[in-house]
C-alpha cells in the first residue's frame, strides 16, 4: 500500500497547524458521506471501489477479450476524464516500448478524441489503413466535439475496412444510460455498451468502465486494480483517525501550504511511466478546485528529465510552489552500470551499481536541494508499480480531492468554466442554435 510523508513541509508550515485541520477535515468527510455539501449529486465515486461486483468485472473482462481477440490496435476515443485515467494506468504498467515490440501480448492502445488536430487524425487514419482495429468510444455527455469528431472518422473507417458486422463487434461505447449522441448511435448500431453512472463525474470515473475496459484490453488485471482502490477506500475512510488517514493529511497539508502562499503544486515523478498519472491528477485537481477565483494550480514534471529544464525555476524562481513526489520504491527490472576500462566518461565510480540506485540518489539529492531552496516537499511512496498500488493511488487522490475541495470552500464536482471556450467555438463555427452568439462574436473580431 502507498504511504505519505509530509516531514519535509515542516520548515514551512507547522505540524500543529496541519493537525489543527482535524475538525475541518472531519466536517468535509461528513459532507461527503452524508451528501450535504456542494455537488452532492456527484458522489458516486466515494464508495465505488467496494461496490464493484465480480459480475461487473467479469462482463468487462469478457468484452475486453472480444477486443483483444479481434483487434491488433484499439483506439480509446475520449477526452479529459474520459481517457486520462485509462492512459495513466496503462502507461504506468506497460513496457515503455510496448508498441515497438514484435511479439505483442495485447492490442496496441492508441488515444484519439482528445484533440482537434487534423494532422494527428490524418496520420492516425493512415496508420490504421492496414490494421484490424477496434474503438472504445467514451463520452459521458456523448456530445463532446473532440471525441465525436474522432469517432465519426473512426467508425466510418472501421466499417469500411472491416465490414458493418465486424465493426459492430469491435466498437464498444461507454456513455450515459439514456442521453447523448454516443448513446443514440450505440443503440442504433447495436454496439456493446457500458454505462457511466449519473453520479460519477468524468474526472472521478477511472474505476468505472471508462477506465476499466481499456485497462483490461491492454492486458492488465482490473480485479487487482479495484482491490487496491477498495483497500485504499478503507484506509482513507471517515472512520480512520486524522493522523492515520493519508487522504486527510494530504488534503490538510496542501491547503495549509496554499493558505501560506504556496499557490502551485508540482506533482513530481522519477519514472517516466507516471507521466500520465500526473496528467490525470492535473485534471482531477484543476477542474475540481480551480473556481471562484481560487485553487492551487496543479503542475507536473518528470524528473530527472525536467531537472534539466524546469529544475532552475523550481530551485530559484518565485517561491510560490510546493512539490508532491510520487516515488516508486522497487523497480521491476535489474540493470547494473557496466565498468569500462577507458573510463572516458568518468563513470566507473558507478560501476556495479543498479541504475535505480543512481535514480534514487537523484531523487534524494533533489528533495534536499529543493527544500533548501524554499520548496516544501511531500512524498508519496508506492512499493512498486502494480495494478494494486496504482488502484490505491488513484483512489487516494480522489478522496483527498473531495476533502480538499471542501476545505477550500468550492464545489469540487462541477466544471462550469469549461463551457466558455465551447460556446465561442460553436459561435465561430456557426453551429445551429448559436445564431445570436455567432453575431456577437463576429462583431468582436
Ligand atoms: O465524457 P465527456 O462528456 O465527453 O466529457 C469529457 C471531459 O470534458 C469535460 O466535461 C470538460 O469539458 C470534462 O469534465 C470531462 O472529463
From TrEMBL:
Active site location: 287, 422
EC number: 5.3.1.9
Record-annotated membrane-spanning stretches: none
Keyword Isomerase attached: yes
Gene Ontology biological process terms in this record: gluconeogenesis; glucose 6-phosphate metabolic process; glycolytic process
Keyword Isomerase in record: yes
Entry-linked PROSITE patterns: P_GLUCOSE_ISOMERASE_1, P_GLUCOSE_ISOMERASE_2, P_GLUCOSE_ISOMERASE_3
Protein name from the UniProt record: Glucose-6-phosphate isomerase
Organism of this sequence: Bacteroides faecis
Gene designation: pgiA
Amino acid at each position: 500500500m502507498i504511504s505519505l510523508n509530509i516531514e519535509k513541509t515542516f520548515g514551512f508550515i507547522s505540524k500543529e497547524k496541519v493537525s489543527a485541520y482535524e475538525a475541518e477535515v472531519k466536517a468535509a468527510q461528513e459532507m461527503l458521506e452524508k451528501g450535504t455539501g456542494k455537488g452532492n449529486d456527484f458522489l458516486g465515486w466515494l464508495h465505488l471501489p467496494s461496490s464493484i461486483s465480480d459480475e461487473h468485472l467479469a462482463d468487462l473482462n469478457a468484452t475486453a477479450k472480444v477486443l483483444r481477440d479481434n483487434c491488433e490496435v484499439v483506439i480509446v476515443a475520449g477526452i479529459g476524464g474520459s481517457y486520462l485515467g485509462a492512459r495513466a494506468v496503462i502507461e504506468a504498467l506497460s513496457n515503455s516500448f510496448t508498441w515497438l515490440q514484435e511479439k505483442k501480448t495485447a492490442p496496441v492502445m492508441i488515444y484519439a478524441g482528445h484533440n482537434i488536430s487534423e494532422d494527428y487524425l490524418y496520420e492516425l487514419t493512415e496508420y490504421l489503413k492496414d490494421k484490424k482495429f477496434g474503438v472504445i468510444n467514451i463520452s459521458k455527455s456523448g456530445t463532446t466535439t473532440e471525441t465525436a469528431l474522432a469517432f465519426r472518422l473512426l467508425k466510418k473507417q472501421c466499417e469500411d475496412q472491416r465490414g458493418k458486422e465486424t465493426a459492430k463487434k469491435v466498437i464498444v461505447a461507454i456513455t450515459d444510460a439514456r442521453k447523448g449522441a454516443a448513446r443514440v448511435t450505440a443503440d442504433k448500431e447495436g454496439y456493446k455498451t457500458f454505462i457511466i453512472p449519473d453520479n460519477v463525474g468524468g474526472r472521478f470515473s477511472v474505476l468505472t468502465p471508462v477506465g476499466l475496459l481499456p485497462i483490461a484490453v491492454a492486458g492488465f488485471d482490473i480485479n487487482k486494480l479495484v482491490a487496491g482502490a477498495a483497500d485504499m477506500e478503507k484506509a482513507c475512510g471517515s472512520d480512520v483517525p486524522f493522523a492515520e488517514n493519508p487522504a486527510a493529511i494530504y488534503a490538510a497539508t496542501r491547503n495549509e501550504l496554499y493558505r501560506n502562499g504556496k499557490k502551485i503544486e508540482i506533482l513530481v515523478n522519477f519514472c517516466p511511466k507516471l507521466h500520465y498519472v500526473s496528467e490525470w491528477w492535473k485534471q482531477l485537481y484543476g477542474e475540481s478546485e480551480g473556481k471562484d477565483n481560487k485553487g492551487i494550480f496543479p503542475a507536473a514534471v518528470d524528473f530527472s528529465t525536467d531537472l534539466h529544464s524546469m529544475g532552475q525555476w523550481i530551485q530559484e524562481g518565485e517561491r510560490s510552489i510546493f512539490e508532491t513526489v510520487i516515488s516508486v520504491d522497487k523497480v521491476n527490472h535489474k540493470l547494473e552500470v557496466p565498468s569500462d576500462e577507458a573510463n572516458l566518461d568518468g563513470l566507473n565510480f558507478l560501476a556495479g551499481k543498479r541504475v535505480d540506485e543512481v535514480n534514487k540518489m537523484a531523487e534524494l539529492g533533489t528533495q534536499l536541494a529543493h527544500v533548501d531552496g524554499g520548496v516544501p516537499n511531500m512524498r508519496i511512496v508506492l512499493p512498486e508499480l502494480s495494478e494494486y498500488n496504482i488502484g490505491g493511488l488513484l483512489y487516494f487522490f480522489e478522496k483527498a480531492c473531495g476533502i480538499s475541495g471542501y476545505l477550500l470552500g468550492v464545489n469540487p464536482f462541477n466544471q462550469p468554466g469549461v463551457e466558455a471556450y465551447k460556446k465561442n467555438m460553436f459561435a465561430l463555427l456557426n453551429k445551429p442554435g448559436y445564431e445570436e452568439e455567432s453575431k456577437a462574436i463576429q462583431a468582436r473580431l
